Amino acid sequence: MPEFRCSECRKAYDIATMNFQCENGGVFKLVDKDVEFPVKKSRKPAMWRYYEALSIENK
Ligand SMILES: [Zn+2]
């Protein structure tokens, strides 16, 4: 089930949310939990955020 995820703070939002951006002003990106990487905070966040964005765009 896909959901929106803030690209800044990674807070998850329901895809049916009426918000169009995060409360902190971050841009949403659409993610699918089924293909999310299990690695979270054990790696450098910036690096993994970039990696995840790439993998989603290439899907
Ligand atoms: Zn945010």
Concise summary:
Strand 1 and strand 2 (12-13) form a beta hairpin. This protein starts with a strand and ends with a helix.
Structural class: alpha+beta
Mean pLDDT: 78
The assembly state of the depicted protein chains is single chain
N-to-C terminal Cα separation, in Å? 16 Å
- The portion of residues assigned to helices is 10-25%
Global outline: globular
- The portion of residues forming beta strands comes to 15-25%
Bound molecules: zinc ion
Radius of gyration: 11 Å
Count of strand segments? 3
Count of domains? 1
> Would you identify the regions where 5 or more consecutive residues have pLDDT less than 50?
none
Give, in spatial order, the strands making up the sheet with the most strands.
2-1-3
Describe this structure in words.
With 59 residues, the protein is α+β, with helices and mostly antiparallel strands. It has one domain (2-57). It is built from 1 helix and 3 strands. The protein has a 3-stranded antiparallel β-sheet with strand order 2-1-3, with no helix packed on it. A hairpin with a 5-residue loop joins strand 1 (2-6) and strand 2 (12-13). The protein is globular, with a radius of gyration of 11 Å. The two termini are 16 Å apart. Bound molecules: zinc ion (ZN). Residues 6, 8-9, 11, 22, 24, 26 line the site of zinc ion (ZN).
